[in-house]
Amino acid sequence: MKLKYQSGFGNTFSSEAARGALPADQNSPQRAPRGLYAEGVSGSAFTAPRAENLSAWLYRLRPSAMHGPYQPMAGGLLRSGPFDEVKTPPNRLRWDPLPIPSKPTDFIDSLVTIAGSGSPDAHTGLGVHVYRANRSMTDRYFHNADGEMLFVPQLGELSIFSEFGKLEIKPGEIAVVPRGVKFKVGVQGPSRGYVCENYGAPFRLPELGPIGSQGLAQKRHFLAPVAAFEDKSRKCEVLCKFLGNLWTAEYRHSPLDVVAWHGNYVPYKYDLARFMVINTVSFDHPDPSIFTVLTSPSGQPGVANCDFVIFPPRWMVAEHTFRPPWFHRNVMSELMGLVRGVYDSKAEGFLPGGISIHNCHQAHGPDAATFEKASAAELKPHKQENTLAFMWESKTIFRPTRFALGAPQLQKGYDAVWGGFKKHFK
User: CB–CB of 87/400 below 8 Å?
Assistant: First the structure.
């Protein structure tokens, strides 16, 4: 059955899975409709400016407070800030795709942390993980008190069933689950992708400035779920990520028992094919910030805790211009992934499912083969097709984990891609 969604970004939505479950006027009447329990969820401080205030009201079968204590559990290869288990090298780093496990592994057990920065208790920085799942979560659920989670599938489809309803995403789409919202993940087969765990301010649309009212991602193309719920009265396991550690509690019911809700603190999805690319139609390079889909501000004007940037199919028409990304050194740090195709800065070696890290002021850019080809190319209009790369860019340094620096997928000879340049000066 095809799922229904509500459209818009930052809107106040309402939805009910049973007629009459939403109160007509008050958020918390003396007796909520149909014997439900009212519960408020805040995604911002109560006194945050109106434009930044995030909250929702949930009407559920049982209070979510109805559970016993959480107990610590092993986190596997999941790590969190301050990411200080090994020294962070200044080296440019690149990894081949991590393999799918051979044994049954659900989304949570499959998570591997590649790198991150900052700290969840300071509400700054982020963690970047790879999931490699081949089994759905059934009576197992998760919520993350450390940060919101941005999903970027690379292989296989995901079904994300949260307290607000269901989202289905496939490669080429993304989804965001807000901090603290309970959910479980279903898969239809081997699935791999990327997750950004954002400790900072919630993702929002970037300001458009001189671009004007059109361009980049549009509010109407973001989709929120409609209400759906589980009525289970059996043992369930609920995992919580709190201050970097995993904790587990036993519930006697499903935590996804929300029959109705309203508010603007909701999960959402977005089809990256709907992104309206802005690019030069004359010469030279605009900065890659024109490809920003979502941004998490840092509090310093114009500087992001994290930007989510994509490099989708697009026309290249610039004249008298070296069209691939030029050699550059940035104050911001970059972690890239590839969903499909070939990234136009690399002739080979950067594979779908792979990752690269280029940290603050470390020189990078096209490899030698790409440079030679692009320098001699006839500059006719050309469409970059069958490609989708993305980047998480941050003011903070990406600190690789011990696992990532020791993984067999780490390309030991990555620096060599810049080793074949000849001196042409006359």
Answer: no
Computed over every residue of the chain, the mean pLDDT equals 96
Greatest extent of the chain over all pairs of C-alpha atoms, in Å: 84
Provide CB contacts within 8 A for 274, sequence distance 6+: 217, 218, 221
Rg of the chain, C-alpha, whole Å: 22
CA dist 48 → 53, 263, 265 (Å) = 5, 15, 14
Q: 371: which DSSP letter?
A: H
Provide the terminal-to-terminal Cα distance of the chain, rounded to the nearest Å: 67
Say which DSSP state 410 is in.
Answer: B
List phi, psi (to 5°) of 46.
-55, -35
Q: Which of 315, 321, 319, 311 is nearest to 290 (CA)?
A: 311
123: number of CA atoms within 13 Å, CB side?
Answer: 11
Output the pLDDT for position 424. Answer: 86
In three-state secondary structure terms, 238 is strand
Distance CA 128, CA 343 (A): 20
Residues contacting 339, CB < 8 A, separation 6+: 152, 153, 154, 171, 172, 352, 388, 389, 390
Give mean pLDDT, residues 388-408. Answer: 98
CB 269 within 8 A of CB 177: no
Active site residue ranges: 285
**What does the alpha-carbon distance between residue 44 and residue 55 come to, in Å, rounded to a whole number?**
7
> Which SS3 state, helix, strand or coil, does residue 298 take?
coil
Report d(CA 262, CA 61) in Å as an integer: 16
pLDDT at residue 426, as a whole number:
87
Q: Report the distance separating Cα 40 and Cα 264, nearest Å.
A: 12
- For residue 420, is pLDDT > 90? no
- pLDDT tens by residue, 17-31: 999 999 999 999 999
The whole-angstrom separation of Cα 83 and Cα 306 is 17
Q: What is the pLDDT of residue 202?
A: 98
Q: What is the mean pLDDT of residues 124-134?
A: 98
The phi-psi region of residue 298 (left if phi > 0; otherwise alpha if psi is between -120 and 50; otherwise beta) is: alpha
Average pLDDT rounded to a whole number, residues 265-286: 96
Domains annotated on the chain, with CATH: 68-256+264-272 (2.60.120.10), 275-410 (2.60.120.10)
Position 402 pLDDT exceeds 80: yes
Count how many residues are written for the chain: 426
Is residue 1 scored above 80 in pLDDT?
no
Q: What is the pLDDT of residues 145-190, one digit of tens each?
A: 999 999 999 999 999 999 999 999 999 999 999 999 999 999 999 9
